[in-house]
Design a protein that fits this description.
Blueprint: E1 4-11, E2 14-21, E3 24-28, H1 44-56, H2 75-88, H3 93-113, H4 125-132, H5 139-153, H6 180-190, H7 192-203, H8 208-212, E4 226-229, E5 240-243, H9 246-249, H10 273-284, H11 295-309, H12 312-319, H13 324-329
Antiparallel strand pairs: 1-2, 2-3, 4-5
Length: 347
């Protein structure tokens, strides 16, 4: 018994040959597949008979092979997919924010290099190196960007980013202030936001560009005497409770709980805000010395704590360092013999 059926049908008002074989429909507009030079629109009856004859002779229609087009993914798309994966994995808000920043920087890089929509297949180590190694990026910044970029591309190009070797950053020491009050007065006259940032960097030992800049009133205790930062909000990854000295509380004017203390809105000021302000202040200041930066206030505060307490463990907790060895680097400004962790008092 034949397991096929041939009929004449129509498609878009045009006659076609329809063959049902093993309950699968096949449509033909001409006889090329059976080597017959007949078009269905010219003589559908004759073409139908030709197909029937071929079927009786053993010819069978072949299912069409679906052409699966490989979709070429771009570097931008792979980075975005990497971010979605990290969000699903529950990565910290800080990492996700940094990762999104990488996408923006890569988009600018492609535009500058005139390689827009660069595909992952065409991504070469030279592209990664040129993206990372820039005159305006320090060795530390290059390594930080690399450490964020690498996990985003790990699913697609697991070893590409890691294969890029970067210079080891040189250890830089932010020169502490000998004239802290004079410098703060100078900054206060220049800009109130920068003054509060420097005051809190010195008095609360918070990092200026993230921990201070992103503070909300909700991070303070009711009487403003303490700041509580969760592990996701500071570099060490640990929860921190920081006392707020009276001279800082006197400056604070409490706002809405979820508002940023500088912007007065839900969103903080942009991440380069204090960096830009400091650069402008630095150009017109007569009090700053070479090597003094925003972080010099934190460095000066660290030295002051050690002078007052003589305790490296208290200094470590105040600074939010994960290791005593890191805290020890802040004491280089003091005339103290070389210290090692094993030299310190045990608790």
């Amino acid at each position: 018994m034949n397991n096929f059926k041939v009929s004449i049908g129509t498609s878009k008002s045009q006659s076609i040959i329809i063959i049902y074989y093993n309950k699968i429909r096949h449509r033909y507009w001409n006889g090329k597949t059976i080597n017959v030079n007949i078009k269905s629109e010219e003589n559908p009856t004759l073409l139908k008979a030709a197909f029937e004859l071929k079927l009786r002779e053993g010819w069978r229609p072949q299912p069409k092979k679906k052409e699966v087009k490989e979709i070429t993914i771009t570097v931008i798309q792979s980075l975005q997919q990497g971010i979605e994966t990290k969000i699903a994995q529950g990565c910290s808000e800080r990492f996700i924010k940094d990762a999104k920043r990488i996408v923006t920087l890569w988009q600018r890089y492609e535009s500058e290099q005139q390689i827009k929509n660069l595909t992952l297949d065409n991504l070469k180590p030279s592209h990664i190196r040129n993206f990372l190694v820039r005159p305006n990026w320090s060795a530390k910044t290059q390594r930080t960007v690399k450490s964020t970029l690498s996990p985003l591309l790990s699913e697609f190009k697991p070893h590409l980013v890691q294969s890029i070797k970067l210079k080891k950053p040189t250890s830089t020491l932010h020169k502490p202030f000998d004239n802290i009050n004079e410098t703060l007065d100078d900054i206060k006259a220049y800009n109130s936001n920068l003054y509060l940032c420097c005051l809190m960097t010195y008095g609360c030992l918070l990092r200026p560009h993230r921990e201070v800049r992103e503070l909300t009133w909700n991070d303070f205790s009711e009487d403003l005497s303490y700041i509580h930062l969760s592990g996701s909000r500071n570099k060490s990854g640990r929860n921190r409770i920081v006392p707020v000295p009276i001279y800082i509380r006197d400056v604070l004017v409490k706002g809405e709980p979820h508002h940023n203390i500088f912007s007065g809105k839900h969103k903080p000021l942009n991440q380069d805000y204090f960096k830009t302000l400091w650069s402008r202040f630095k150009r017109q200041s007569n009090t700053l010395e070479k090597g003094q930066t925003l972080y010099s206030f934190r460095h000066s505060g660290a030295i002051e704590i050690f002078k007052r307490t003589g305790s490296i463990t208290k200094l470590q907790k105040a600074m939010g360092h994960s290791s005593i060895n890191v805290s020890l680097t802040y004491l280089r400004g003091l005339e103290i013999a070389e210290l090692k962790e094993e030299d310190m008092p045990m608790v």
